[in-house]
């Protein structure tokens, strides 16, 4: 193995991971780093290899396979100094495979490897069903508040495994909690269709509206969520990574990093989507109409859009992260998103 920093990266073909990898590949340390990307598609693996040659890193290695190829993942992580986990925030077993590799790395080298794991502010969600604005605002400078979350909430199963690894001392762990991420990414990985251009929540609501020919909302849509532009989100991971290398970032219990640059109210987002859908002939009315009981039964995920998730990204800002896009930009992102999803010329 060379003396270069060994980085294992999952989710390179994803919306979040692609935006980060593009930036990481031009990080001042990239030329002294060796990137190994876990990729499922052989075709995308080839495209990523070609792209890698154009970056300061001079190339990327591919581990062809899935996160569920547990032994393969563990063996690669056991050779890594840094893991960027950008592919799965729900399942225990892929996380356990990564942690087993980190433990092996520590035992064999005596050096404590780094895990940057992606969770989500969905872990903070309540059951408001669109009927009220939540009162609790979580602040990541207060680990006690985060630790008050019940074990069974979204993402928490995986986050608890990650936190335990840090406590045991065989890895330094950093958990990033993105909120609603929006915007259509640009850059080589997106322009070449290697990485996914679409986020999750907004495209889901757009598709749900198209399917019922009417933009929808959960009850009154009084609930609130934080949001961040994809580029500001990616920039945070770079800020964090730089701070970790300079030994300036808290890890473990104090290493929970929310990301947000403001919030939006669910009704306002639903309204922006519905107006755009109406404009392109995909919604009967231009104001949102609440989803029905039958619709929740058929698509339980719809109720997610009636939850509150409220937080402050105090730790990210303390590290010097300066997001450029205010929360209102989420509304401006709807028009291009609708047109891109529906293949309509902007
Ligand atoms: N987008 C958001 O607004 C948002 C907000 C909060 C948290 N997050 C979290 O951020 C993470 C990334 O989300 P995203 O928006 O980038 O999703 P995405 O665009 O769907 O990308 C997911 C990435 O993970 C890879 N992946 C999934 N399962 C895999 C497996 N079994 N083996 C190997 N690779 C696998 C995908 O590879 P393929 O290309 O092969 O499918 C893809 O590269 C997720 O954990 C998500 O929960 C996202």
UniProtKB/TrEMBL annotation:
<feature type="domain" description="NAD(P)-binding">
    <location>
        <begin position="11"/>
        <end position="104"/>
    </location>
</feature>
<protein>
    <submittedName>
        <fullName>NAD(P)-binding protein</fullName>
    </submittedName>
</protein>
<dbReference type="Pfam" id="PF13460">
    <property type="entry name" value="NAD_binding_10"/>
</dbReference>
<dbReference type="InterPro" id="IPR051783">
    <property type="entry name" value="NAD(P)-dependent_oxidoreduct"/>
</dbReference>
<dbReference type="InterPro" id="IPR016040">
    <property type="entry name" value="NAD(P)-bd_dom"/>
</dbReference>
<dbReference type="GO" id="GO:0005737">
    <property type="term" value="C:cytoplasm"/>
</dbReference>
<dbReference type="GO" id="GO:0004029">
    <property type="term" value="F:aldehyde dehydrogenase (NAD+) activity"/>
</dbReference>
<dbReference type="InterPro" id="IPR036291">
    <property type="entry name" value="NAD(P)-bd_dom_sf"/>
</dbReference>
């Amino acid at each position: 193995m060379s003396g270069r920093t060994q980085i294992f990266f999952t989710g390179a073909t994803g919306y979040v991971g692609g935006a980060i990898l593009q930036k990481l590949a031009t990080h001042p340390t990239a030329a002294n780093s060796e990137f190994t990307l876990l990729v499922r598609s052989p075709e995308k693996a080839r495209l990523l290899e070609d792209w890698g040659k154009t970056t300061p890193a001079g190339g990327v290695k591919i581990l062809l396979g899935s996160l569920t190829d547990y032994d393969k993942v563990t063996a690669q992580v056991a050779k890594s100094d840094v893991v960027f986990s950008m592919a799965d925030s729900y399942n225990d077993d892929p996380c356990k495979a990564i942690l087993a590799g980190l433990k092996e790395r520590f035992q064999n080298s005596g050096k404590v490897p780094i895990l940057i794991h992606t969770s989500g502010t969905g872990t903070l969600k309540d059951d408001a069903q669109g009927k009220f604005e939540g009162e609790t605002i979580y602040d990541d400078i207060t680990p006690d508040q985060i630790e008050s979350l019940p074990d069974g909430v979204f993402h928490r199963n995986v986050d608890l495994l990650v936190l335990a690894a840090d406590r045991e001392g065989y890895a330094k762990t950093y958990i990033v909690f993105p909120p609603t991420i929006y915007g259509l990414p640009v850059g080589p990985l997106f322009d070449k269709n290697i990485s996914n251009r679409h986020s999750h929540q907004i495209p889901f609501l757009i598709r749900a509206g198209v399917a019922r020919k009417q933009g929808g909302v959960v009850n009154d849509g009084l609930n609130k969520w934080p949001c961040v532009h994809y580029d500001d989100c990616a920039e945070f991971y770079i800020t964090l990574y730089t701070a970790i290398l300079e030994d300036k970032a808290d890890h473990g219990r104090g290493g929970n990093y929310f990301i947000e640059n403001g919030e939006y109210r669910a009704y306002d987002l639903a309204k922006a989507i519905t107006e755009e859908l109406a404009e392109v002939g995909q919604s009967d009315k231009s104001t949102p109409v609440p989803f029905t009981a039958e619709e929740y039964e058929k698509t339980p995920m719809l109720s997610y859009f009636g939850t509150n998730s409220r937080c402050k990204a105090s730790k990210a800002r303390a590290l010097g992260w300066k997001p450029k896009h205010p929360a209102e930009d989420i509304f401006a992102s709807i028009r291009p998103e609708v047109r891109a999803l529906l293949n309509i010329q902007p």
